[in-house]
Amino acid sequence: MASCPDLPPEILPEILRHLPKVHHLTRTALVDHLFYQATIPELYKRASIYSWHKEGKLKVLLLFRTLASCPHLARYIRRLGMHIPILLIRDFPKHQLTDEGLKDILQGLRNCTNLRSCTWTRDGSLTSGILYALLNAPSSPEASPHLSSSPMPSLRELEINGHHVHLFDPKLLLHFRWLSKISIIMPTLEVIQVLEEWVEILQGTLTSLNLICRTSPLITDDTLIRMAPSLQNLEFFHLTGCPKVTHKGIRAVLSENENGIKSLGLEGVSPRLVHLNPQPTFHNLRSLTLSLPPLNPSPPPPPNGHHHNYTTIQRWIARSELSNYTSTLSSLLTSTNAPNLEQFQIYSPYMFLEPCDATSTLFRALVKDHGDRLKRISVHRMLIDMDVITEICSRCFKLEELFMVIEPGYLDDLALRIHNAKSLRTIHVNYPLEAHTEDGGTAVLRLSEAVNFVRQCRNPSLTQFGCNARVHRRIVERENDSGEKVKEIEIDLGPYESPDVPEQFLVVRA
After folding, report:
1. What is d(CA 244, CA 249) in angstroms, rounded to the nearest whole number?
2. Which PANTHER family does the entry link to (predicted)?
């Protein structure tokens, strides 16, 4: 093993790609020179640090110290994700970021000459200096007129926090002229104004646009209408928390699209989305993510002594609006309008929904039209009737990922139904946040319950439970009732080893 003289060198990188944990790769690099040369590019091709990582801020400083002092290692970085505050705005101790530390960060970025994707999304962490470094330009305003003439770097994907005040100059974004993906969280008005000009510059290459707000009124139909002519090549279009966007703005973007949207996310937009008619550009739609609109508007205050009638009116309005909304979705998702749909995600951000005829009808229509193609169904803050779950598991024979909410006490019943989903690889089960135990505590899915559930499912393809548990199988030898030794497969849950975080958990929706 120390020298592996018979191992073809070109095979080794393929083997190393199956080692998910960083510390596995660091040990592999110590085997010999051949292993070192094959391991280092794999070890450094991506760097992601999240706020929940232990000593994450210190790790950021150590990472950039390495990238600054070792350009030969920095050139292997392809994906860089900074999800924690590194520039001291609030909770980062000022004494930890010295002038030398800031210098390392900027020089480390400049050394990442093959960087393809950069994520810098924590509020208060993005500065003009970092943008200059990503542009591989001097950190001075005097240099900005000459930025466009700098050599075209490899960066193709940029995800940033759009809160720019006292942090960065939004006009610097106009110098990123070669991007295929833009994602902006909480953009300010100035950033949105720059975005309208930016997408015009990028109209030849931009294929993905993701805007995430928190009920911001800044992005409107007029904003989308102005940008629409520049978005003709979009394949991925996602809006979150944009209540001023209606069917008019969405229709403007979709009507300009030339090849058909592949992934569409409309979360927290105007309830008037129900007026969106079936679109010709849905013919290439692979993934659809939706949130339900507010379903319980407040009618006039009830007369004294008539609270029961008041509640009845509220429930009738909610059921009526939900029925109208799900009927519209069903018409949008008929197989002739979206013949290639593979992923469907829906959730309720405003109120927890119990099973009802409207949602059951929606999911039955979804299974009827797309059951032979669906690979992912994700449902949050909504309960689905157990009979509907049976239909999903038995008729969606390509289903690989299932995210759902069930009431405590239904795990055993769910396991029997899940058994029919033979292709299922990932399942995540939540209890309602409103659910409580008999003693009044919050209902939480315990590890022992999860293990028992996975064993009852008896799905040979199941490999992941939730966002942090991997399904492990091993062959053990036991004695049966007759005293004979037999081999059995033992199933257990262990830590999730991949550095990739499932999409559903990057932005908390439930």
Report:
1. 9
2. GH16156P (PTHR13318:SF247), PARTNER OF PAIRED, ISOFORM B-RELATED (PTHR13318)
Q: Tell me the C-alpha distance between 321 and 439, whole Å.
A: 36
Which candidate, 360, 365, 424, places its Cα nearest to that of 394?
424
Which residue is it, tokens 């803050």?
381
Work out the number of other CB atoms within 10 angstroms of the CB of residue 215. Answer: 11
How many C-beta atoms lie closer than 10 Å to residue 237's C-beta?
23
- CB burial of residue 274 (10 Å; 0-12, 13-18, 19+): middle
The Cα angle at residue 497 between residues 74 and 79, in degrees rounded to 5: 25
* Nearest Cα to Cα of residue 249 among 227, 271, 221, 211: 221
State pTM to two decimals.
0.84
Rounded CA gap, 71 and 51, in Å? 26
At residue 137, does pLDDT exceed 90? no
Cβ neighbours of 135 (radius 10 Å): 22
| Neighbour-count burial for 35-60, b at 16+ CB within 10 Å, e otherwise | beebbbebbbebbebeeeeeebbeeb
147-156: per-residue pLDDT in tens? Answer: 544 445 689 9
Compute the distance between CA of residue 236 and CA of residue 445 in angstroms, rounded to an integer: 34
Q: Are 45 and 16 in contact (CB under 8 A)?
A: no
Instruction: Using only the alpha carbons of the chain, give its radius of gyration.
Output: 26
Contact 240, 212 (CB under 8 A): yes
